[in-house]
Every structure is written in structure tokens, then in C-alpha cells.
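STRUCTURE:
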């Protein structure tokens, strides 16, 4: 038996309308030349802690040309799935995540935030999915009670050349005893829903990454001192190599359950950064704080949670910075909760610039 949730069916007519409160839209955004924020001194890097359940990353093959499965692994308890696949099969394709109960007792499956979108532009699909996920990921919802052998499907009918991008939190419990349950997750694309996702052969990977990682979240504290003037911190920088400016604890080694071996999720796609941002005003007067996001490694559309606001950028490239917030602090400063993740289809790192100026 199959339990299917058709969350999205879009094509040439448009994309999913977002739910929740989105307080800054692209046509309201302010972009400035990145050179106007330089020079800027690096902020002290926080030590990040891995938290939350495991993360399943499905990004390979990123542009499948045939039907098939993309990744499969077992997880226990709480987990997040991030998937990003461009349909290059030549005709519409259903891109899906399937959760299968292989145990001998019923399993209850709950969601804690689902974001899923399709679009011709991969980074727009990624932005819409992430914004939708961030607008509802605090609420838990029972998705299904899976009997032994049953599967739950989360699907998006995706037009040819369009990209399906998704991010979803799930928790699996046994119906009896409410213990953490083990389930099998399969990401796949098909024209007709299979009898069992476990029977679908897995396609050969490409240069992109698929794998399972220990934690889906990172937590830490950023500190900006007004005496530093213009300052910057890079988030989702490369894990290693000449372009790496990663923070301690930012990256974890994962494993590829299909092909074997360890993997690194460069950019930490699907990882949510939960940051307390401490603004320390070291002057005796109020200061105006401005914060910008610059995709110093490329371009894309981005999403940031800042306090109670959910903010979305227009298209921005490495030559520009998106001014996403401005506020006044008194002598005591201020602490703001920030939440962000690199959107599917967009390039990192996200370099945050902090500036301060006189109150006018």
C-alpha cells in the first residue's frame, strides 16, 4: 500500500505560492556594490555545534536523464531530507521522496516542516522551497501510520528541464511504545509510481554529492563589535582547499550508503544554521546597524530568517550585496536570532557584512 502526498504540481503556469509571513520581497530589496563595503575585517569565527537529527542529501545525479532512484539509506528517529534534481528526461517526471517501513510493526511518521518547489531556474526552486520550509518547520504534523511494508511518498510533478528542490524534516516512532523507529528513505524520479520504492534501481552518481550526515543543524554565536567598523563572516564556505574559510565545527564527514566511502557536503546544502548574533555597541551613543549578504562564490536567490522576519533576496551575484536588515541599537547592544541555509541551485559562501553608522 502506498500513501502519497502530492504537495506540488506546477509547470509552465508558475510556482508554488509561499505560506507564512514573508516580510521582504525581491522588489523591495536594496543591492549595493560589494566594493562599497570594503575594506572589512574578519569577525572572530564561532565554534559551531552539530545538532538535530541526521541529514540525507540527494543531489546526484543532479540532472537525471532517465527514471530511477537517486539515493537510499536507513535512518532512525528524527531526520531531514534535502533533494535537488533537474528533470532532463525529455518529458514530465515525478520527483519524490519515499519513506518505507521495513519493520514488523506499525510506524508513525511525523513532519516538522516541508518545503518543495519546482521552477525553470534551479536557484528559484531552491529559494521557494527553503522559504516555505522555514515558514512552517516549527509545527509537527502526523503524515502517516505506515504498516509493515508501506511507503509514504512526497511528490512533485516536474516539467522537462525544470528543477525540483525540497527540504523536509521527519520523525519516525513506533506506534506501540512510541520508540524511535528505523525507516528507509529513497529519493527517486518516475512516470508511474512504483509498487515499492525499494525495487527501483539506483542511478549512477555524477560529480555531485549524495550521502547521509550525522547532523542536520549547526548552532553557534556570532559577535559583532561596533568598534571594528565594517566586518564580515563567511557561511557555507568550502570545506577545504584554497577557497576555504570554514568555521570550526562547520563540516561533518558523511557516508555514501549506495556507492560506499565518505563524503563531504561542500556548501552544507540542507544544513540549517541557527546563530545568535550579539551586537556589542562599544560607543556611548546609539548606532545604526546594517547587515548585508554577498554570495562571494557566485550568484543565486537566498533566504534569511532574522528575528521574527523571513527575508528573501532578489537575484544577487558576487559583485553585489543584499542589504537585508537595518536597525538601531542603544548602548547595551542587542542579540538577534538568525537562521539561514544555502539554497539549492545557489552558490556559496554567503558572506555576511556588518556595518554601523551614526543615527540621523
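SEQUENCE:
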Amino acid at each position: 500500500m502506498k500513501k502519497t502526498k502530492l504537495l506540488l504540481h506546477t509547470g509552465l503556469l508558475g510556482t508554488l505560492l509561499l505560506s507564512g509571513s514573508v516580510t521582504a520581497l525581491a522588489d523591495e530589496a536594496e543591492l549595493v556594490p560589494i566594493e562599497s563595503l570594503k575594506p572589512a575585517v574578519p569577525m572572530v569565527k564561532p565554534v559551531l555545534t552539530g545538532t538535530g537529527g541526521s541529514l540525507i542529501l540527494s543531489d546526484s545525479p543532479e540532472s537525471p536523464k532517465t527514471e530511477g532512484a537517486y539515493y537510499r539509506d536507513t535512518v532512525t528517529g528524527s531526520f531531514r531530507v534535502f533533494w535537488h534534481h533537474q528533470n532532463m528526461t525529455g518529458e514530465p517526471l515525478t520527483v519524490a521522496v519515499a519513506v518505507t517501513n521495513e519493520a514488523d510493526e506499525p510506524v508513525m511518521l511525523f513532519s516538522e516542516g516541508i518545503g518543495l518547489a519546482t521552477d525553470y531556474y534551479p536557484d528559484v526552486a531552491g529559494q521557494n522551497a527553503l522559504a516555505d520550509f522555514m515558514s512552517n518547520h516549527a509545527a509537527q504534523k502526523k503524515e502517516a501510520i505506515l504498516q509493515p511494508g508501506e511507503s509514504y511518498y512526497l511528490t512533485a510533478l516536474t516539467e522537462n528541464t525544470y528543477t525540483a528542490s525540497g527540504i523536509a524534516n521527519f520523525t519516525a516512532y513506533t506506534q506501540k511504545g512510541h520508540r524511535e523507529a528505523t525507516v528507509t528513505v529513497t529519493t527517486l524520479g518516475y512516470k508511474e509510481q512504483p509498487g515499492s520504492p525499494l525495487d527501483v534501481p539506483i542511478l549512477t552518481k555524477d560529480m555531485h554529492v549524495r550521502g547521509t550526515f550525522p547532523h542536520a543543524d549547526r548552532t553557534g554565536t556570532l559577535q559583532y563589535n561596533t568598534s571594528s567598523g565594517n566586518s564580515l563572516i563567511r557561511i557555507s564556505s568550502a570545506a577545504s582547499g584554497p577557497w576555504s574559510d570554514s568555521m570550526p565545527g562547520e563540516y561533518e564527514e558523511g557516508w555514501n550508503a549506495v556507492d560506499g566511502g565518505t563524503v563531504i557536503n561542500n556548501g552544507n546544502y540542507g544544513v540549517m544554521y541557527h546563530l545568535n548574533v550579539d551586537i556589542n555597541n562599544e560607543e556611548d551613543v546609539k548606532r545604526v546597524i546594517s547587515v548585508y549578504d554577498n554570495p562571494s562564490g557566485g550568484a543565486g536567490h537566498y533566504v534569511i530568517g532574522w528575528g521574527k522576519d523571513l527575508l528573501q533576496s532578489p537575484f544577487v551575484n558576487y559583485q553585489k550585496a543584499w542589504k537585508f536588515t537595518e536597525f538601531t541599537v542603544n548602548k547595551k547592544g542587542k542579540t538577534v536570532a538568525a537562521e539561514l541555509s544555502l539554497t539549492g541551485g545557489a552558490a556559496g559562501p554567503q558572506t555576511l557584512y556588518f556595518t554601523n553608522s551614526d543615527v540621523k
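REMARK: Residues 232 and 353 are 4 Å apart (CA to CA).
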